[in-house]
Structure formats: C-alpha cells, structure tokens
C-alpha cells in the first residue's frame, strides 16, 4: 500500500531536474533584466541624448555630458574624463567574467556581477578582475565624443 502513495523514482528525479532548470532560467532572466534596465537607465542619461546626432555621425556623447573625474556608459562604451579635457574610452564588458559594468561612482567603474572595480583609466582598482578594461578608441570632434 505504501508503493501506491509514492511517486515513481523517475518522476521525482525528472521533476527535481526541471525545477532546478526553471530556477536557473529564472535567475538568468532576472539578471539580464537588471542589466538591461541599468543599460536603459544609462541610455536615458543626458550623455545618451547627445548620441542622437546626425545619422552616421558616430557621436557617442557630448563633452559636456562627461563629468571631470567620472564618466558615462553609452551602449558598449565607457567614456571617462579623468582630468579636464582628457577623454578615454573602454569596453563596457568586465574583463573578469564578461558582465557589463553598470555605473561610475566615486571615480570607479563598477561591475555589479562580482564586485570588480576599475579606475577611470581602465586599470583594475579591486578584483576579482585581474586585467584592465579593453581600450576603445574615442576622440573629440567639436563638442562631441566619437568612436575612433
């Protein structure tokens, strides 16, 4: 009679596996949504408003939108201004595990995934990342910062 109440072992194992898979998928979906929300929030900053220049202009941001001693994240590029008039570009992909950096706070570029921090010149300030952010070429043309 006890066997009638117990579900077959295969059903329990399959059910547990599906439950674990659902948890992983949900966690990944939540993580992606958070990153996308952060990216969308970053895209709505004044720097992103400067990107809507003439089609094909390649403008990433206006120089006025990148604070001295800080920076902005525009799409796949982090633009910093460590000192007045000096603009640097980096990939927004963290060198540790490939997550996107999410913010620039107190002179540090922050990756939300594992807590890596980078200086405004792209070098590692705090691990677990061991290598600098990849450099992206940017230049100033008039009052705009462009790729290249």
UniProtKB/TrEMBL annotation:
Which keywords describe this protein according to UniProt?
2Fe-2S, Disulfide bond, Iron, Iron-sulfur, Metal-binding
Rieske domain residues are 58-147
Q: What are the names of the required cofactors?
A: [2Fe-2S] cluster
Q: What is this protein called?
A: Cytochrome bc1 complex Rieske iron-sulfur subunit
SUPFAM superfamilies registered for this protein in UniProt: ISP domain (SSF50022)
Molecular function per GO: 2 iron, 2 sulfur cluster binding; metal ion binding; monooxygenase activity; oxidoreductase activity, acting on paired donors, with incorporation or reduction of molecular oxygen
A Gene Ontology CC term for this entry? membrane
Q: Does the keyword Membrane apply?
A: no
Family annotation (InterPro entries): Rieske_2Fe-2S, Rieske_2Fe-2S_sf, Rieske_Fe-S_prot, Rieske_Fe-S_prot_C
Region entry Disordered, spans: 34-60
**Start-end of Low complexity biased regions:** 43-59
**Keyword Transferase part of the UniProt annotation:** no
Biological role stated in the UniProt entry: Iron-sulfur subunit of the cytochrome bc1 complex, an essential component of the respiratory electron transport chain required for ATP synthesis. The bc1 complex catalyzes the oxidation of menaquinol and the reduction of cytochrome c in the respiratory chain. The bc1 complex operates through a Q-cycle mechanism that couples electron transfer to generation of the proton gradient that drives ATP synthesis.
């Amino acid at each position: 009679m006890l066997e009638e109440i117990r579900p077959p072992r295969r059903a329990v194992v399959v059910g547990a596996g599906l439950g674990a898979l659902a948890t992983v998928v949900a966690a990944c979906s939540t993580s992606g949504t958070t990153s996308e929300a952060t990216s969308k929030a970053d895209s709505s900053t004044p720097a992103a408003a400067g990107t809507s220049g003439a089609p094909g202009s390649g403008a990433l941001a206006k120089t006025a939108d990148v604070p001295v001693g800080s920076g902005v994240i525009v799409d796949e590029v982090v633009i910093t201004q460590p000192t007045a008039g000096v603009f640097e570009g980096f990939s927004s992909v963290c060198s540790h595990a490939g997550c996107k950096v999410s913010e620039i706070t107190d002179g540090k570029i922050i990756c939300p995934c594992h807590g890596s921090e980078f200086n405004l010149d792209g070098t590692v300030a705090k691990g677990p990342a061991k290598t600098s952010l990849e450099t992206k070429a940017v230049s100033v043309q008039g009052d705009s910062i462009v790729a290249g």
